[in-house]
Amino acid sequence: MKALIFNSGQGSRMGDMTKDKPKCLVDIGGESILHRQLRILSECGIRDFIITTGKYHDEIAEESAKIQDINVELVRNPLYSSTNYIYSMYLAGEYIDSDMLILHGDLVFERKIAEQLVNDSRKDICLIDVTSDKPEKDFKGRIICGRLKEVSVEISDDDCYSFQPMYKLSKESALKWTEAVKRYVKDGKTGVYAENALNDILGDMNIEALSYSGMLVSEIDTAEDHCRVSREVKWLKE
Q1: How many CB atoms lie within 10 A of CB 87?
Q2: The CATH number of the domain where 60 resides is what?
Q3: Do the Cβ atoms of 99 and 173 come closer than 8 Å?
Q4: Structural domain count of the chain
Q5: What's the mean per-residue pLDDT of the chain?
Q6: Residue 29 lies in domain
Q7: Helices and strands (DSSP H and E) totals, the chain
């Protein structure tokens, strides 16, 4: 299994915290978000990583090199300032050749949920929180009969739940998503989420929902997010 981590964005919503570095290099609990991701996932058995980069390619390369005994393929998105991460996924597509863990570079998660994802016998899994309130401005997942049917910021029906962009996918499913992304890029649709392409093919997929209720799985988009997650990380025993 490989892990694909999207780190091409600039993190402008973080203010001064990201004025001279990418969001993934912001400190959380004494280590960068990226270092924490790589450390936990490598301890769960993942050794091969694909990391997309943008403006701070060299800094991300230097941080990635701090984790021993892993293989990292860096994929630079030269259009990082004018495209969404759907274009980064398009560029990384040639390296997707196995079962995949796909996640965002600003996602902070505890070891327990990573272990569950990696060790779960099911081929295709997404993460939802069945107990928390649905976020207004973040992803929700539409779950019907335990399967993912739609991912969007806009949806808020009774069958929708808080959703975090961290997927475990079989090679077949990862390649199917990659092909859908290629079609979007070919049509010039590079300013949307990669999940827009995923939504087009979810009817032919079988991504099962795993609840992370009671566990830390959170994106860091703002300084307020950083304060909240830093407090939660402090209390984790990992």
Answers
A1: 24
A2: 3.90.550.10
A3: no
A4: 1
A5: 95
A6: 2-234
A7: 7, 13
203 with 176: CB under 8 angstroms? no
Could you say which DSSP state residue 134 is in? P
Among 77, 104, 85, 90, which residue's Cα sits nearest to residue 217? 104
Write down the pLDDT at residue 173.
Answer: 98
Q: Poorest-confidence range of 15-19, 76-80, 109-113? A: 15-19
Token pair of 54 as six digits: 């943008």
Q: Is 237 exposed, middle or buried (0-12, 13-18, 19+ CB in 10 A)?
A: exposed
Name the pairing type of β-strands 140-144 and 107-109.
unpaired
Of the candidates 63, 90, 91, 61, the residue with the CA atom closest to the CA atom of residue 75: 91
The Cα–Cα gap between 24 and 36 comes to: 10
Helix (H, G, I), strand (E, B) or coil at 129: strand
Q: Render 14-81 in DSSP notation, one character per residue.
A: GGGGGSSS-GGGSEETTEEHHHHHHHHHHHTT--EEEEEESTTHHHHHHHHTTSTT-EEEEEE-TTTT
Average pLDDT over residues 13-36: 91
Note the pLDDT tens digit of each residue in 82-95: 999 999 999 999 99
Look at the pTM and tell me if it is higher than 0.85: yes
For the stretch 163-203, pLDDT in tens is 999 999 999 999 999 999 999 999 999 999 999 999 999 99
